[in-house]
Specification:
657 residues, two-stranded antiparallel sheet
Length: 657
């Protein structure tokens, strides 16, 4: 039954998006651009409106919209128009397969962070909403457009936040890849070339991918060891410089990348779309990829069409949208737009300046309510010059970037006969060099000084270069250049090997549980707690804290649709300018769960805590604390046993009326 429900849900989503795109093909002849433009127009308009009035549950929308969608699409699809949806559907189904097999939304990576962001918006209250990780405060400290969009789909289809997150993850990557298809389609007419570029983006890693077998050896062939080896290889592609280059364990690898003992290595990450597919994080860089490919698709379309007005307006609007999507990419995408204008003027063509300004102004107007609430709370960080010890080591830099450098050299070899190739290659190389000397001076320091800058900027430039330079070189008239262009694209696709190994050996304990709560439901005690909280009245849920982030803390609250008394304190502290009360609150919670907090009951009541969870996590952390807490809380809280097992009790304390 659940599988039927999932199929119907996906059908409704895809049908509605297809119809929205069909309506916008009147303005954008390209089906991929039309779908993205229609979706962004709808989302931005509702994002604006809900800063004035929350629209609440929108579950009544989907029956009407689906009937209208079928009517819009019927005649068009009857004549074969459905084929235009394949560049969207196929990536969606590929990513959906990943989430279906590995759907858990747990304490790893930013899973619970993203779930908290979506939970903030899922109620449909007026924006900015309350922060479910710090309920006394508004969620006005982060760019949450992607999570708003995901929650909106959840509100329309009455989905739990976890299911909305996993489906939103699939949709976001499908948008990116369909727009990438729009770009490569205009360069390459041969199918295998188009699929090669798309595969390099969707399943490919960095230049480290083909080097992995000679850098790391595996002595144990057990399933657990095979799984760990696959995970290490998946991470080594994205965290090579400063982290996994220090874990090389082969003689050949040590010769290629000798360790330098004079200074601490600098971590310089680069995250690809394929890495995100494995990781499952619905984080702002994913939407950044979509807006990047959207802008590139519009630019390429403007090279070959007379429908300049809607395309250039959409291109102008795409830039300020980054303020609400992923502001880190705004400088780069601004430079991209300026370079495109320079290229157009140099080629004697119009850059449609008035339309660009109009689109940007319209987007800024719609985003103004968001900017008004977010800007005063945004972390201040400026540009700074990279000091000598923070530069990328030459060997590691070449290992990561050689595919892009290879493609850039091929594009430059076309000379003035292909001005677009020349400008694209020069732009990529100039940006790469610029990133080596300028970075965003954020609160991180030491080994992490450039961490966020390379994480955001390298991850933006790498797929843009593969898409543009790969497509341009594969469409070259010179046979030798086309053959050489395929080499780096095939090389990065070797990243599919550790992905396949991970699929083969990683236990699939939560198969099909797309709400992301399978890792809790697989434990009978945790499933009992989760069911109880889902049926309970709304109230603050207290859970134990271990580290300051990347733990299971707040999982029961988020997966049950409740608000957490406190989420991950390190994250909240960072977002809220290191406000001291957050860590003080965290220390009290830790003391409480160890049975060391004086006057625990009155303090919890003063904090409006309604439910206190005692799970296996808490029992493992401090088994002796349970008896102390039962004694301390008797006056203010009633203990509800949800499971008794081997002399241990698990359940929830509930505040007495």
């Amino acid at each position: 039954m659940y599988l039927i429900y999932l199929v119907l849900t996906v059908f409704i989503l895809l049908i509605n998006l297809a119809a929205l795109g069909r309506v916008f093909t009147y303005y954008f002849a390209d089906a991929q651009i039309a779908r993205a433009s229609g979706t962004l127009t709808l989302l931005t308009s509702l994002f604006f409106i809900e800063h004035f009035v929350g629209l609440g549950s929108l579950n009544w929308v989907w029956p009407l919209s689906t009937l209208c969608s079928i009517a819009i699409l019927f005649k068009h699809w009857k004549t074969g128009g459905w084929r235009a949806e394949l560049p969207f559907w196929l990536p969606f189904l590929y990513v959906f397969a990943w989430r279906f097999v590995f759907p858990d939304i747990d304490g790893q990576s930013e899973h619970l962070t993203d779930l908290a962001f979506i939970s903030n918006y899922i109620s449909g209250s007026r924006l900015p909403p309350s922060d479910v990780w710090l309920p006394a405060y508004k969620f006005d400290i982060y760019y949450g457009f992607l999570h708003y969009a995901t929650a909106l789909a959840g509100r329309i289809l009455a989905l739990p936040a976890g299911l909305a997150m996993n489906l939103g993850f699939c949709l976001t990557i499908a948008f990116s890849m369909s727009l990438a298809w729009s770009v490569v389609y205009h360069f390459c007419s041969i199918t295998w070339k188009k699929f090669l570029v798309i595969a390099a983006l969707l399943m490919g890693g960095t230049g480290v991918s083909p080097l992995v077998p000679i850098l790391y050896s595996q002595t144990d062939a057990s399933p657990i060891a095979n799984t760990q080896a696959a995970v290490n290889q998946l991470w080594a592609n994205t965290r090579f410089t400063g982290l996994y280059d220090q874990q090389i364990n082969t003689p050949a690898g040590a010769a290629l990348f000798p360790k330098v003992a004079e200074s601490a290595p600098r971590e310089l990450p680069l995250e690809t779309l394929a890495y995100y597919v494995y990781l499952g994080d619905l984080h702002p860089p994913l939407a950044g990829f979509a807006l990047l490919f959207f802008a590139l698709a519009l630019m390429i379309k403007l090279e070959r069409t007379q429908q300049a007005k809607p395309l250039s307006i959409a291109l102008g609007a795409s830039l300020p949208l980054l303020l609400a999507v992923n502001a880190w990419n705004l400088p780069l995408q601004g430079l991209l737009l300026l370079a495109w204008c320079g290229y157009r003027r140099h080629s004697g063509q119009s850059c449609y300046f008035k339309h660009l300004i109009f689109g940007a102004s319209l987007a800024l107007l719609l985003l103004y309510p968001f900017i008004n609430s977010y800007a005063p709370n945004a972390l201040s960080a400026g540009f700074a010059f990279v000091v000598s010890e923070d530069h990328t080591p030459l060997r590691q830099g070449l290992a990561i970037w050689w595919p892009v450098l290879w493609l850039a050299a091929l594009a430059l070899s076309q000379g003035k006969e292909n001005k677009l190739a020349l400008w694209c290659a020069a732009g990529v190389l100039l940006l790469l060099v610029g990133m080596e000397f300028i970075y965003i001076n954020d609160p991180l320091s030491g080994s992490y000084n450039r961490f966020n800058s390379t994480l955001k900027w390298w991850s933006w430039l790498y797929p843009a270069a593969l898409l543009l330079l790969g497509s341009i070189n594969l469409s070259s008239q010179a046979y030798w250049r086309r053959c050489l262009a395929a080499v780096p694209l095939l090389a990065v696709c070797t990243y599919a090997l550790p992905q396949a190994q991970y699929w083969l050996y990683q236990p699939k304990t939560s198969l099909g549980q797309l709400a992301g709560d399978g890792w809790l439901k697989n434990d009978v005690a945790h499933w009992a707690i989760l069911k109880h909280l889902r049926s309970a009245e709304k109230g603050l849920v207290l859970e134990g804290l271990d580290a300051g982030s990347y733990t299971a803390a707040s999982a029961f609250a988020l997966h049950s649709g409740q608000a957490a008394a406190l989420g991950w304190p390190d994250h909240e502290s960072l977002w809220r300018n290191q406000a001291p009360f957050i860590q003080a609150q965290a220390d009290k919670i830790r003391a409480f769960y160890h049975g060391n907090l004086p006057d625990a009951g009155p303090w919890l009541v003063s904090q409006n805590i309604r439910y206190i969870v005692w799970s296996r996590f808490d029992q493992a952390r401090s088994p002796a604390a349970f008896a102390l807490l039962r004694q301390q809380l008797t006056a203010q809280y009633a203990w509800r046993i949800l499971l008794a097992e081997n002399g241990m009790e698990f359940g929830v304390w509930e505040q007495r009326n």
